[in-house]
Design a protein that fits this description.
- This protein has 19 helices and 15 strands.
- The protein has 2 domains: 185 residues, Periplasmic binding protein-like II (D-Maltodextrin-Binding Protein, domain 2); 198 residues, D-Maltodextrin-Binding Protein, domain 2 (3-Layer(aba) Sandwich).
- It is of the alpha/beta class and 416 residues long.
- A hairpin with a 2-residue loop joins strand 1 and strand 2.
- The protein binds beta-D-glucopyranose.
- The site of beta-D-glucopyranose has 11 residues, from loops.
């Protein structure tokens, strides 16, 4: 019945006729791509599928980082009404895989040679027990800074290379009466900044020990206190209205020249492009100072929920479309991310995209590619949420840095 209602609601559903029987070829896709830039990228996927005769039933759940989408997903699965395909990140995918809820994509993967072209770091999150359980769409990374070029030029600011230079640039903007940092006020956004800040404060070995290995010594260290001190400096340079603000509205502040910098993953680039802005002319992208050789990544994937034992033709077509080299280029150019395949040319990408692809390859080769804590690629949701709570409480002035360090150690030891 539910299926019938959904089909009736979706005027776009495409009907294919085989042997006189009408078969509804449609995928219901749950995702959190609701900002302007994200919606433009999603359209690339919708159009690709529609051209293949597959209808799209849209199930958007607003909320960057996907926490709300995951809550809706759990409710749908509990009600026995899982969507066909679901955007998901890192350890969440592995959790659903462990529950046996996902369709096995091995046949599509084998036919199309995914093992050879999808990097190991992504395969880790796309396979469970050796079986392909999701289709990687892209690779994003969180340790980027986005800047309004005219604002920087007007204040004589060059791209900062070190934390000290970054602090000086921020102070220059402050003195000039410009909001230095555009920040949204949601825990996942503060955690996104913390990915880069912690990496800059302690380097890759520290990042791995604290966020991936959950080493108590690293979590409770002076370096962690330094990371919280850096967050306090950033907090002192955001505007008064940041609380509750969405990430894309913070990006809009940089786009409009109301603020100088935003520290955000490269989905922010999608907003600049959607506003008709050009990298190098209107805006600048650079790695968070002190993390130039490192990449903290998150990869969007689509997991396909098991619809009764076998992967459906629509699910297989969606998975295949997502991994096709032409789609990987077309989609990621718009989204701000880089391809999930290593064999896609960077030709169609702008300067930030080309840098993203080069950084990813070199970080991966030098052992400096790490999963993003903020975006579910360092640890399971329980640990990530425990970290969110402490980072946010500190950002909002509830804890000083020394207390935040103690709280972090406790929260992680309870959650893990
Ligand atoms: C996703 C991106 C998305 C961003 C903001 C991240 O977790 O990986 O695709 O654009 O959240 O919504």
């Amino acid at each position: 019945m539910k299926g019938l209602i959904k089909s009736a609601l979706n005027g776009m559903a495409v009907l294919a006729f085989s042997g006189g029987m009408a078969v509804s070829q449609e995928v219901e896709v749950l995702h959190w791509w609701t900002s302007g830039g994200e919606a433009s990228a999603l359209n690339v996927l919708k159009q690709d599928l529609e051209a293949k005769g597959i209808g799209w039933l849209d199930m958007p759940v607003a909320g960057g980082g996907g926490e709300q989408a995951m809550t809706v997903l759990r409710a749908r699965v509990t009600a026995g009404d899982a969507p066909t395909a679901v955007q998901a990140l890192g350890f969440d995918i592995l959790d659903w895989g462990a529950q046996g809820a996902l369709a096995n994509l091995n046949d599509v993967a084998a036919a199309e040679g995914w093992d050879d072209v999808i990097p190991e770091a992504l395969q880790y999150f796309a396979k469970y027990d050796g079986q392909w359980i999701s289709a990687p769409v892209n690779v994003h990374s969180t340790n980027w800074v986005w800047a309004n070029k005219a604002v920087l030029d007007a204040n004589g600011i060059a791209i900062p290379e070190t934390w000290e230079e970054f602090m000086a640039a921020i102070e220059t903007l402050s003195a000039a009466g410009v909001t230095p940092v555009a920040q949204g006020g949601k825990p996942w956004q503060e955690a996104t900044v913390f990915d880069a800040v912690a990496m800059s404060a302690g380097g890759p070995a520290f990042y791995k020990a604290a966020f991936i290995d959950l080493d108590e010594e690293a979590l409770g260290s002076d370096t962690m206190k330094e990371a919280f001190d850096r967050m306090a400096f950033i907090r002192a340079h955001v505007d008064d209205n940041f609380s509750g603000r969405s990430w894309n509205l913070a990006t809009a502040m940089v786009i409009n020249g109301e603020a100088g910098f935003q520290m955000m993953g490269d989905w922010a680039k999608g907003e600049f492009l959607n506003a008709g802005k050009v990298p190098g002319e209107d805006f600048l992208c650079f790695r968070f100072p002190g993390t130039q050789n490192q990449v903290t990544f998150n990869a969007d994937q689509f997991m396909m929920f098991d619809q009764g034992g076998v992967v459906s033709p629509e699910q297989a077509a969606l998975a295949s479309a997502i991994l096709s080299p032409s789609f990987q280029s077309a989609f990621n150019v718009v989204k701000g991310s880089v391809p999930a395949r290593t064999d896609v040319s960077d030709e169609a990408f702008d300067a930030c995209g080309k840098q993203g692809m080069a950084d990813l390859a070199s970080a991966s080769a030098s052992g400096n590619l790490f999963g993003s804590m903020a975006h579910g690629h360092a640890n399971q949701a329980a640990v990530r949420n425990a970290m969110y709570d402490v980072i946010t409480a500190h950002f909002n002035g509830e804890y000083d840095s020394a207390t935040a360090v103690e709280e972090l150690v406790d929260a992680v030891s309870i959650a893990k």
